[in-house]
Amino acid sequence: MAALPKRIIKETERLVSDPVPGITATPSEENLRYFEVTIDGPSSSPYANGVFQLELYLPDDYPMCAPKVRFLTKIYHPNIDKLGRICLDVLKDNWSPALQIRTILLSIQALLGAPNPDDPLANDVAEDWKKDEKKAIQIAQEWTQKYAVKKD
């Protein structure tokens, strides 16, 4: 396996030494380009008290192209589909090599706090959100309780 670029090593070290509040990103021992990520749902959102598992993978051409990130925890959100794919501008058209793993994870956490049904990936959820936001938020809270709350 090729040596990791210095940039990935630096970013990884910073994630470990200076973690982002509410976010953990741990590189896999088998593949240092693959991270196991957890993001706490923002307290003022329907995802509060949830801990969401994600996977993040740095492709060979990172940082020239965006990391691949997806939710492993089921979530009811207009910008995250059933496969866990995320509709977020910085993961697609607005990616810049100046961005870092931590920036992306903060953007994903912010997306949990501010769902955008006008740029949906899960059209059915976005429709629900637009038709009856209260009900959609209630479903999001139920899913969070069901799938994302750690059982002691």
UniProtKB/TrEMBL annotation:
EC number of the protein: 2.3.2.23
BP terms from Gene Ontology: DNA damage tolerance; free ubiquitin chain polymerization; protein polyubiquitination; protein targeting to vacuolar membrane
GO CC, alphabetical: fungal-type vacuole membrane; nucleus; ubiquitin conjugating enzyme complex
Pfam families cross-referenced by the UniProt entry: UQ_con
Coiled coil location: none
Keywords recorded for this protein, A-Z: ATP-binding, Nucleotide-binding, Transferase, Ubl conjugation pathway
Top-rank taxon, per record: Eukaryota
Residues annotated as the enzyme's active site: C87 (glycyl thioester intermediate)
Protein name (record): E2 ubiquitin-conjugating enzyme
Lineage: Eukaryota, Fungi, Dikarya, Ascomycota, Saccharomycotina
